[in-house]
Write a structure and sequence with these properties.
- The complex is a heterodimer.
- Helix content of chain A is about 30%, strand content about 30%.
- By secondary structure, chain A is of the alpha+beta class.
- In chain A, strands 14-15-16-17-18-19 form a six-stranded antiparallel barrel. Chain A has a four-stranded antiparallel beta sheet with strand order 5-6-1-7. A four-stranded antiparallel beta sheet of chain A has the order 8-11-9-10, with helices on one face.
- Chain B has a single domain, classed as Rossmann fold, CATH 3.40.50.
- In chain B, strand 11 and strand 12 form a beta hairpin.
- A nine-stranded mixed beta sheet of chain B has the order 6-4-7-8-3-9-10-11-12, with helices on both faces. A two-stranded antiparallel ribbon of chain B has the order 1-2.
- Classes of the chains: A alpha+beta, B alpha/beta.
- Chains A and B meet through helix 14, strand 12, strand 14, strand 16 and strand 17 of A and helix 2, helix 3, strand 5, strand 6 and helix 5 of B.
Chain lengths: ~500, ~280
């Protein structure tokens, strides 16, 4: 169902301001060339004012106009509330800015006694709110829009009927096209939807082949009207954000008092969340200062929770750098991101505090203090380059990971960046005897290898060199993982270089 | 399972065997299964058996998996090899515990000795590692303390390089208290650090030692060996051991060949009376 509130700005103005019916009211918006009329009431239109005309020109024709400023933002807000209100006729609704609504009424009309009765009901209710509306029901959103805006005879299309046939008499502007495209089509002599449908797809496709946007391409709009291509519509969802606030009698300037207020708010928020069966994932704390400044602190939680002590404690770490100035007069706690969290049995252990924190609480505290990237767990990655074979992800102990087969012993620790070592070798393609690393000379007494790891050709450049890895032990028993990058004479750079990459336990 | 002061393991006095420092079940070390036990034991019948006082056994809520004095241990090791972390893991791991564990490193430790490498970790530990990369030593200490408070962690391994000002005796004692209150063992690896003041109940010096030739590739490096020097302990006589993987026993074994390898009786007389919590209570 499409609803078109043609005179929404004027209706809204009339509801807000008591004015006689016959006043020649016009609403004006500011433009670069001066005030221009955006809406005109019927008496004003009779007097000569028209929408889109400069106010100065209209005043020259009709000197008695009552001029008021337009409020597009307020109209938009009213339209949003109307969209939610209109969900009484269907499961979801969408905005059709600036003054229309699209409501999905699939499978609903029989509850109201048919489509006609449903539209009558909707019309009555719109009228009760003081809004004039044009309604239409059609199989597709595009067809309903066309009938609501341009329909004359009927305002409900039966589910089986073909919109292209039924709406053949409507003007091409009913296809929701740009003004430029409508003008072009009218110059081509295609004034009705029926004319356009008779032209043939191939010709239309060729003429508008470089127009991707639906509102510039009549063929896409025709297909949407007929229901041949899908037309995604973004529905409006009413989401209530759990929010609690305290307006303070006396502005708070000290930290201890603020902590107390945050504790109270966290408790109240927990109660609010519990009522909705929700747990917070993101919590925002807003503090309005006397001097008009607003401080906002935001935390994210690893798992949905509504434990007030936990939330208050996390904020306590973030409040250290707050400058209260002349005082904080309003504190608000809201949970913009909440997830379902069912009620659970309370912790029966009386002294839970002495038994330590849970893992999620521990992770929360660590990430709040140290940052999101500081806490991680390694998971394997399908790569045979050693430094790419693991990757760090946010910790999730429940993560199940397929283990990889390990054919070769790998070092316990890997340096972030393999460090170059100076070597003395007997043969350029063999194992060194002695190497120097971090200012110390290590004499190799035992070695296993080489394990040759070739570069990943699908990822690296063609000039990347292969690596020969050796597990070695020096004379004092230190065990390292070293490699030679490249082979002598492989034509990919100079003589091979040696690196130390890992340490065995 | 490494138990140091559990009454089950320490024998009755006068039975003729010395209390074994390392004794018990199977430990999964960095290179497989290891059992901790002490190699040579001499009869020291005059050593009295410490009986844990009731206050130390009954106060903590979680079941005491390890001895009281195992809870905070410091291992001093070089930053140029992984011996400290490897021995800490060999000590720390318990085969019947499948909870996550925490590994905290500060920035210098990461730069000098690298990050944990999952393919090289023991198979039963690698999937439950949670790693914390802290910028400063203060942050690392905070992370260690938070980890010790967490009841869902099996143990906490920390790696801190050098002697930062933040890690003074007060901070060390704080860690000891948290650890003993919540029963989460802490293995703090000190990389390239002086032996400064600390309240750890056991303090070790760890260094890599030449490994034995492996069975098949005799040219290659074998199973790891560490030269471990217990230079300060609350309940035990200091001593030096050569620890390592023993192929036959699948165990962390103490081998002959440590420097001097003095064999002390093990337990210091009347040591158990000075447990940390008990001392705090009387203070």
């Amino acid at each position: 169902m499409a609803a078109w509130c043609q005179t929404l700005p004027l209706d809204r103005w009339r509801l807000d301001n008591e004015a006689p019916e016959d006043a020649p009211v016009v609403l004006v918006g500011e433009t670069a060339h001066g005030p221009r009329i955006t809406a005109a009431s019927a008496p004003a239109r009779q007097a000569g004012a028209r929408v889109g005309v400069l106010l100065a020109d209209a005043r020259a024709v009709a000197p008695g106009l009552a001029v008021y400023p337009a409020d597009p933002a307020g109209d938009r807000a009213l339209l949003e509330t109307l969209a939610l209100w209109a969900q009484q006729w269907g499961p979801w609704s969408a905005l059709d800015a600036p003054d229309g609504l699209i409501i999905d009424v699939t499978g609903v009309p029989h509850l109201f006694g048919g489509e006609i009765a449903m539209m009558a009901d909707a019309k009555t209710r719109f009228a009760a709110r003081g809004l004039s509306v044009r309604l239409a029901i059609a199989p597709t959103a595009g067809a309903a829009w066309a009938i609501a805006h341009y329909g004359t005879k009927q305002n409900a299309l039966a589910p089986g009927s073909d919109p292209l046939v039924a709406l053949a008499d409507l003007p091409v502007a009913a296809l929701r096209l740009d003004h430029a495209v409508v003008l072009l089509l009218e110059r081509l002599g295609l004034k009705r939807i029926g004319d356009l449908a008779a032209v043939g797809r191939a010709a239309l496709a060729r003429r508008f082949r470089d127009r991707r946007a639906p509102m510039a391409n009549p063929l896409i709009r025709l297909d949407q009207l007929a229901g041949r291509v899908p037309e995604p519509i973004l529905p409006v969802l009413g989401v209530a954000i759990p929010m609690v606030q305290r307006r303070l009698m006396e502005p708070v300037r000290h930290r201890t008092l603020l902590d107390r207020v945050v504790d109270d708010l966290a408790t109240a928020l927990a109660r609010r969340l519990e009522a909705g069966g929700q747990g917070a994932r993101r919590v925002e704390l807003g503090m309005w200062k006397v001097d008009g400044d607003v401080l906002v602190r935001r935390i994210e939680l690893a798992a949905a929770t509504r434990d007030p002590a936990h939330i208050a404690r996390l904020f306590a770490d973030r409040l250290d750098d707050c400058d209260a100035g002349f005082g904080i007069e309003l504190v608000r706690l809201s949970a913009p991101w909440a997830e379902p969290l069912s009620l659970t049995q309370d912790d029966l252990e009386a002294a839970a505090a002495t038994h330590g924190t849970s893992l999620t609480a521990c992770l929360d505290r660590l990430t709040v203090r140290l940052g999101q990237d500081a806490v991680a767990m390694p998971i394997p990655r399908a790569s045979h380059m050693p430094e790419r074979a693991q990757r760090w992800v946010p910790p999730d102990p429940a993560l199940i990971i397929q283990e990889e087969l390990g054919f070769q012993p790998r070092p316990l620790k890997l340096l972030d960046r393999a460090e170059p070592i100076a070597v003395i070798y007997e043969a350029p393609d063999g194992l060194p005897r002695v190497f120097r690393w971090r200012g110390h000379v290590h004499e190799i007494t035992r070695a296993a290898g080489p394990e040759r790891i070739a570069p990943e050709w699908w990822r690296e450049k063609g000039g990347a060199r292969l690596r020969d890895y050796y597990r070695i032990e020096d004379s004092t028993g230190r065990r390292y993982w070293i490699y030679r990058r490249g082979l002598p004479g492989d034509g990919r750079g100079g003589p091979p270089e040696w690196f130390l990459q890992g340490m065995y336990g | 399972m490494i138990r140091f002061s559990s009454p089950k393991i320490l024998p009755e006095p006068g039975r003729g065997t010395a209390p074994n420092l390392f004794q018990g079940g199977v430990v999964e070390g960095p290179l497989g299964q290891v059992v901790a036990y002490r190699g040579v034991a001499k009869p020291t019948p005059q050593t009295p058996c410490p009986t844990p006082s009731p206050s130390t056994t009954a106060t903590r809520g979680p079941p005491s998996r390890t001895g009281e004095d195992m809870l905070h241990t410091e291992l001093f090791a070089s930053a140029d090899d992984a011996s400290g972390a490897a021995l800490a893991l060999a000590f720390a791991h318990q085969p019947d515990d499948h909870r996550p564990w925490l590994w905290v490193q500060d920035k210098t430790a990461i730069r000098q000795s690298g990050r944990p490498y999952r393919p090289g970790l023991p198979p039963s530990l690698r999937h439950r590692l949670i790693h914390v990369a802290a910028d400063k030593a203060q942050d690392a200490l905070f992370a260690l303390e938070e980890g010790l408070r967490c009841r869902d962690l099996a143990f906490v391994v920390g790696e801190i390089a050098g002697n930062p000002a933040a890690l003074d005796f007060t901070a060390s004692r704080r860690l000891s208290l948290v650890s003993s209150r919540h029963g989460v063992p802490l293995w703090l690896v000190r990389l390239a650090a002086r032996h400064d003041l600390g309240s750890a109940r056991m303090r070790w010096d760890v260094a890599s030692a030449p490994s034995p030739p492996p069975q098949w590739n005799t040219q290659g490096p074998g199973d790891p060996r560490w030269q471990a020097d217990l230079f300060r302990a609350h309940k035990f006589q200091p001593g030096q051991w050569m620890l390592g993987h023993d192929g036959q026993h699948e165990a962390l074994h103490a081998f002959e060949g440590g420097h001097g390898s003095p064999d002390h009786g093990g337990v210091v007389p009347d040591a158990a009376a000075g447990s940390l919590e008990a001392g705090q209570r009387s203070a």
